[in-house]
Amino acid sequence: MNTTPESPRVTLDPGNWDELRAQGHHMLDDMIDYLARVRERPVWQPIPQAVRDRFRADLPREGTALAQVYDEFVHYVAPYAAGNVHPGFMGWVHGGGTAVGMLAEMLAGGLNANLGGRDHAPVEVERQIVEWVRRLFEFPEGASGLFVTGSSLANFIGVLVARTAALGRGVRKAGLGEEGGKLRAYASAAAHRCIPLAMDLSGFGSDAVRPIAIDESGRMDLGKLAEAVARDRAAGLVPFLVVGTAGTVDTGAIDDLEAIAGFCRDENLRFHVDGAFGALAVLSPELKPLVKGIEKADSIALDFHKWGQVPYDAGFVLVRDGELHRDTFASPAAYLRPNAKGLAAGAPWFSDFGPDLSRGFRALKTWFTLKTYGLDRIGRSIAHSCELARYLEGRVRAEPLLELLAPAQLNIVCFRYRADDEVNAKIVVDLHESGIAAPSTTTIRGKLAVRAAFVNHRTQVCDVERMVVAVLRLGAAAGARPRLR
Ligand SMILES: Cc1ncc(COP(=O)(O)O)c(C=O)c1O
Predict the structure, then answer these.
(1) pLDDT at residue 56, as a whole number
(2) Distance (Å, rounded) from C-alpha 239 to C-alpha 237?
(3) To the nearest whole percent, how much of the chain has pLDDT over 90?
(4) What's the farthest any 2 CA atoms get from each other in the chain?
């Protein structure tokens, strides 16, 4: 048997590159068509059981022709995606991605770069983005940043850096101890669930973050924050961190970041901002004032895969004090020691700033997106999604059968058909199954709300209109007896 290194039985490269090229071009053309014609498709459709069953197959010991595997993708994967590329997708906080980002993903896959460290241009691309983000948020030189999966991880890193600031890098070896057990953090009651999770994962326990009541516009009540901090100090506990939210997941409310920054300065607390989607409001001149004060944060979590429209995943964390950030993660290991020259040069490495050693090239799709569209155009698309929210708010206010539960704060509107929770839950499920639109639900002041979040750059007024008309039709079809005003 021929097992020389050249044997196609050993390498995974194709025996015939031209065949691969033809198949690759076909796949690329298909995906470009998929995006170009996305509006013609349903937003989402349920996965038939027979299709689900296909993903319970035996281990594929033998190979299958690429064309055949692709055929399975075409028939059983692509039609049953979540639909966040579709303009009718209005659920949760999902970005729409772009064709440019998709092409960049292909290039990144080809290079197969590992951005944990070493001296190569992909690392410089990520450094370029760190520098751009630093300037965007007016952080000083010496600030650090890195790509992570998403804001869940970016917020976790923010909490870990705050832990180092409070307890020194010794905490990494010795654990929290008695001193660490007294530390308390504060975030609005509307903060994302990943904040208590970050406290849990950091060893503090999720109870160590105090949920601070929100005012009627969904922002952290700063009087209540001051009371909670004073109460904890009086009880012998040690406040160390306030997490402000730029864009709450439920309603899009933005905490008063400027005031929180002042409070943190006066009280000697660290200030972290969860700006998962709201932070990129800085790209729009009209919206930028809403996040005023974000530039005073000690650290910021944000996602390029939401309002930045970079394909998943592209979370990012920015830290004012790069040394502190590095102290939180760097550890010496002989086999990872950077050199002054050669491929093993290029210190500090990104693996010194986060938990991942192997890291993909998320920076490339972000670099392509930012360069190809330019920040101003992305800012305009962000502002447009807020205009859509205002349009929907106006539409709901004008329609007697609909009730506004949370006005458009940013890009999110919560409303409902004037009927009970059960009817509204059914309307949303029916909407999803109709393929017309995919809003999500939340609870506002005890009432189940239809929650429309405009994140996708493809969504237009006509899509909002289709959703409203469908809600009215499905509400009537649900046999609801609407309670008119
Ligand atoms: C305010 C907020 N914070 C954090 C997250 C978590 O971000 P990710 O899903 O990128 O981990 C989200 C997600 O929607 C969010 O809206």
Answers:
(1) 97
(2) 7
(3) 92
(4) 83
Residue 68 one-letter amino acid: Q
Closest-lying ligand 1 atom to the alpha carbon of residue 92 = 14
In angstroms, rounded to a whole number, what is the distance separating the alpha carbons of residues 399 and 395? 6
Tell me, using a 6 A CB cutoff, whether residue 192 lines ligand 1.
yes
**What are the residues facing 239 on neighbouring strands?**
184
Amino acid sitting at position 460: Q
Please state the rounded mean pLDDT for residues 223-230: 98
Helix (H, G, I), strand (E, B) or coil at 453: strand
Q: What value does the mean pLDDT take over residues 366-394? A: 98
The whole-number pLDDT of residue 27 equals: 98
DSSP 210-277: EEEPB-TTS-B-HHHHHHHHHHHHHTT-EEEEEEEEBS-TTT--B--HHHHHHHHHHHT-EEEEEETT
Q: pTM of the predicted model, to two decimals? A: 0.96
Among 86, 425, 133, 473, which residue's Cα sits nearest to residue 279? Answer: 133
Q: What is the pLDDT of residues 151-207, one digit of tens each?
A: 999 999 999 999 999 999 999 999 999 999 999 999 999 999 999 999 999 999 999
Is the separation of the CB atoms in 383 and 389 below 8 Å?
no
For the chain, the average pLDDT equals 95
Round to whole Å and give the CA distance between 319 and 134.
9
Position 12 confidence tier, pLDDT thresholds 50, 70, 90 = very high
Instruction: Of 229, 231, 183, 188, give the one whose Cα is nearest residue 205.
Output: 183
Pocket perturbation via mutation, ligand 1, pick of 303, 366, 412, 454 by most ligand atoms within 8 A of CB: 303
**Ligand 1 midpoint to CA 311 (Å):** 15
From the list 99, 66, 67, the residue with the least C-alpha distance to 85 is: 99
Coil vs helix vs strand at 445:
coil
pLDDT of residue 222 exceeding 60, the answer is yes
* SS3 letters across 272-325: EEEECCHHHHHHCCCCHHHHCCHHHCCEEEEECCCCCCCCCCCEEEEECCHHHH
Specify the ligand 1 atom closest to the Cα of 247. Answer: 1
CB-based contacts of 447, cutoff 8 Å, min separation 6: 405, 416, 421
